[in-house]
Amino acid sequence: MSTKQTFHVIGFLLLLFALFSGSWFLWLFGGLFFFMPAVQSWWLANMRRWIKLEWSADQSRVMPGTPVRVTLRLHNRSWLPLPATWLRFTLPDHVTVEGADEVRQSRQRTVVRLRLDLLARQGVERVLTLTPHKRGVVWLTEVQSESLPLFAEEVTALPLQASLSLLVYPAPLPLPPVSLADTDPDGSRLRRQRKQEDVTFQRGVRPYIPGDRFKHIHWKATARTGVHQTRVFEHTARSDWRIVGHILPSYEPLLQRHNDSINERTISCLAALSILCRKRALGYELFLTVRQRGRYQYHLAAGSGKSHHLHVMTQLAQMHTFVTTPLAPLLRRLETSPAREAILLVTPRLDEAAEQAIERLLRRGHKVAVLDVAAETAVLRRCEPGRSVSGRRIAR
Q1: Beta strands 241-245 and 195-207, pairing class
Q2: What's the CA gap between 99 and 134, in Å, rounded?
Q3: Tens place of pLDDT for every residue, the chain, 396 residues?
Q4: To 5 degrees, how large is the angle CA 169–CA 174–CA 179?
């Protein structure tokens, strides 16, 4: 029997005695036992208006193993104190928590409990340290609050809304030495699709055209001629890599094999290549053998710089549920490029159709290198026409 039912039974007996005795005291005393559960129900229904939960973190995008300082603030705007209030929330099992009153593992989740003593019209603050150890997104959207009831009733869980998300980037895989000579243009010839302006060397000025960048205006020439003049820079050639990531299905029924660990190495290798291109200011476009918004493959246009790097790392961090596609059709798509491209293929294994597609790319003049991530240590091999992909090893 619950506390509410006990109160109702006591109140019913008191009202029954009051009916036969005619005592006003018993009438009031019995009615009190019906009034108290009603007050408790009203209090629980309106508690969300008086209890406010706030979260803040010093970082929102981190690498695995980075501690994140999270501050929790709980405000009590009512005139009643809330002693022995417990907050309960769950996180992925790979997240370690420091600073909580109780932490335990249950059903591949980390269950965290905090005890707070809230005074009337005041708030309390707690600081936790969260350390994620795997890539992905850590979400915290709901917290269960367990407060001491007003009239010794059973503890009732009250859900409180929370908004905290933590993006964990994939850990970069150690790479073998990658030679950039294969990506240089042939001789000193400049290709039209690869022409860029090098702001280091200026070769003259020209009249201003609407749309020119404000910082490229030559103010001395403008003052001398009386007409706005724009700097003209020397052309340079910078080739873009084409990085192809081969993602395997999570489970292959015919081989009875799980590929989650292999895919994690592939994603970590792609993250390491993105960091390498960011450090050396190289442009690249990314292809992945996964479906994306109705497309047969995922394709990120060529780019460089910080925003492009963050876009790639965010996409790799959020890859959890995906539908994979074969590698050979993606390589056949790259054959249609009229320019000779430098292609870097990141794959754990190659089948016969993929090797034939690589051979056709080589015959068309493309330069292809395969980064094998089947083992713990990545191996880089350069492909040559007429030779097997695994026939020559250039770095380890």
Answers
A1: unpaired
A2: 21
A3: 677 778 788 888 888 888 888 888 888 888 888 888 787 777 777 777 888 899 999 999 999 999 999 999 999 988 888 888 889 999 999 999 999 999 999 988 999 999 998 888 899 999 999 999 999 999 988 898 887 665 555 666 788 888 889 999 999 999 888 764 444 433 333 343 444 455 555 778 888 887 777 888 888 899 999 889 988 876 555 557 899 999 999 998 888 899 999 999 999 999 999 999 898 888 889 999 999 877 888 999 888 888 899 999 999 999 987 889 999 999 998 887 776 778 999 999 999 999 999 999 998 888 899 999 999 889 998 888 766 565 544 343
A4: 115
Return the amino acid letter for 76. Answer: N
C-alpha dihedral (362, 342, 275, 313), degrees to nearest 10 = -80
Q: At 16, list the tokens.
A: 């029954």
Residue 382, classified by CB atoms within 10 Å of its CB into exposed (0-12), middle (13-18) or buried (19+), is: middle
Instruction: Name residue, tokens 């005074």.
Output: 119
Determine how many CB atoms are found less than 10 A away from the CB of residue 221: 17
Residue 116 in contact with residue 74, Cβ under 8 Å? yes
**Strand 136-146 and strand 109-118: pairing?**
unpaired
Burial class, 17, CB count within 10 angstroms (exposed 0-12 / middle 13-18 / buried 19+): middle
Report yes or no: 89 and 103 within 8 Å, Cβ to Cβ. Answer: no
Q: Which amino acid is at 61?
A: R
DSSP letter assigned to residue 182: G
**SS3 of residue 362 by DSSP:** helix
Token duo for residue 7: 């109160």
In three-state secondary structure terms, 161 is: strand
The two three-digit tokens of residue 295, written as one number: 């497309």
